[in-house]
Amino acid sequence: MKYKDFRNFKIERNCTKKYNRYRSYLPYLGEDFKHRCAYCNMHDETITENYRVDHFIPQTVLINTDREGLICDYNNLMYCCPKCNSTKSSQYKGNIHDGSYNNELFYNPVEVDYNQIFYRNEYGGISSEDPKGKDMIVNLKLFSPIYHFSFLIEEITEVLEKLNQKIESTTDIYEKEKYNEAYRRLVSFLLKIRGLFNSSYYNNSIKRNNGQ
Ligand SMILES: [Zn+2]
To answer: 20 to 30 A from 135, CA-CA: which of 56, 72, 120, 173?
Structure first.
């Protein structure tokens, strides 16, 4: 069941700079992608690690071909969280010689409106009714609990901000105390969800580093 849209903005490429090192584009990608991962939509403030530059058509496919220029081509670069970047890795399907920016395994996050493909379900997870969208959830491991927790963290933070406004604007002492109590309870719940997110996020990293 749909609970919310997947994204609440449209990704637009505005960078006109040219660099020889693709990593130089990272701050521009951050701005154009509103600091959210192109694939899972997680905000870059959710984790302490830096976000990565993802190649929509992977570098390994482009290297030593006549399309090598795409390694530093802004249109082939995506702002990406470390999880999606390492999971997507060199996954590719298509013909690199067709002159396109396509990777048939994935919908292009800039050209395709992900709200038509994905949505947030009643548990905060990422769902899709679209066959290729469903494959993407598997290929990018978007079913991982970290994406439920990161979504929940954002939802709770939003409610906390609203509660804070209420606390500041209310003059009635009794009302104010009620809001304060709700605020305190919600903060302690947020800390629990944060803990679940951190343990789930970093446990997976340890497993991967051990080659499991
Ligand atoms: Zn991601």
So the answer is: 72
